[in-house]
Design a protein that fits this description.
The model has no long low-confidence stretch (mean pLDDT 94). The strands form 2 sheets. Strands 6, 7, 8, 9, 10 and 11 form a 6-stranded mixed sheet that branches. It contains 6 helices and 11 strands. β2 and β3 form a beta hairpin. The N and C termini lie far apart (35 Å). Helix content is 30%, strand content 27%. α1 packs parallel to α2. The chain has 2 domains: 116 residues, Nucleotidyltransferase, domain 5 (2-Layer Sandwich); 88 residues, Nucleotidyltransferase, domain 5 (2-Layer Sandwich), CATH 3.30.420. With 233 residues, the chain is of the alpha/beta class. It is globular. It is found in: Cytoplasm. Belongs to the KAE1 / TsaD family. TsaB subfamily. Keywords: Cytoplasm, Transferase, tRNA processing. Its main location: cytoplasm. This is tRNA threonylcarbamoyladenosine biosynthesis protein TsaB.
């Protein structure tokens, strides 16, 4: 029997929840620039009730750990941490960039993904991934926050055609026009919990779930503080 995993994500304009149970994924999703804190918990209740499960019956709770909106990443991490802590279940943090790569595979069968989220302040959250035969995504570049101009100066062309995802491509269309990669557009703009839960299932099978007090967000910018749970070092 497959693991029972709940996933939620509020790191971008998209607010989403997904439940993996008995090999089936039930999902809720709404694009809403604001109000994630009030929307995500009703979504959680809906998918759990539909499956007839309680939080305590889950094997793990996954969340979009970022990068993304500072406020959105905080909300998602905090809500997920509170739910997992109360239900005494472990957590799995999943990259929002990698989740978009997974979305492109789910929708278009893409194996070479280049992801860029608008990070404001004339920067993008950036990463490239290649899907391996076992379904695992290999990071070609380390996730980073970087000005588009710096990307154009450092990223070199290769033999692959990269499918692009994220809001960064439209936000910095002119700045990224000189990027030396063969690229094709896709319709994936935001991460989705239904892709996070697939990646979380892989991580759970590999023993990567952690206690709630050990889970945390990934901002990529160093000057952002995270309020830790009691007892966390």
């Amino acid at each position: 029997m497959s693991a029972k995993i709940l996933a939620l994500d509020t790191a971008t304009e998209n607010c989403s929840v997904a439940l993996l149970y008995d090999g089936t994924i039930t999902t809720r999703s709404e694009i809403s620039p604001r109000g994630h804190a009030s929307k995500v918990l009703p979504m959680v209740d809906e998918v759990l009730k539909e499956a007839g499960l309680t939080l305590a019956e889950l094997d793990a709770l996954a969340f979009g750990q970022g990068p993304g909106s500072f406020t959105g990443v905080r909300i998602g991490t905090g809500i997920a941490q509170g739910l997992a802590f109360g239900a005494d279940i472990p957590m799995i943090g999943i990259s929002t960039l990698e989740a978009m790569a997974q979305a492109m595979y789910r929708i278009h069968g893409v194996s070479n993904a280049v992801c860029a989220i608008d990070a404001r302040m004339s920067e993008v959250y950036w990463a490239r991934y290649q899907r391996q035969e076992n379904g695992v995504w290999l990071a070609v570049d380390d996730e980073c926050v970087i000005p588009p101009q710096a990307l154009c100066e450092t990223v070199q062309d290769d033999e692959h055609t990269w499918s692009q995802a994220g809001t960064g491509w439209d936000a910095y269309q002119e700045e990224l026009a000189g990027l030396a990669l063969k690229r094709e557009k896709s319709d994936v703009l935001f991460p989705e919990a239904q892709d996070i839960v697939v990646l979380a299932e892989q991580a759970y099978a590999e023993g990567k779930a952690v206690a709630p007090e050990e889970a945390g967000p990934v901002y990529l910018r160093d000057k952002v503080a995270w309020k830790k749970l009691p007892g966390r070092e």
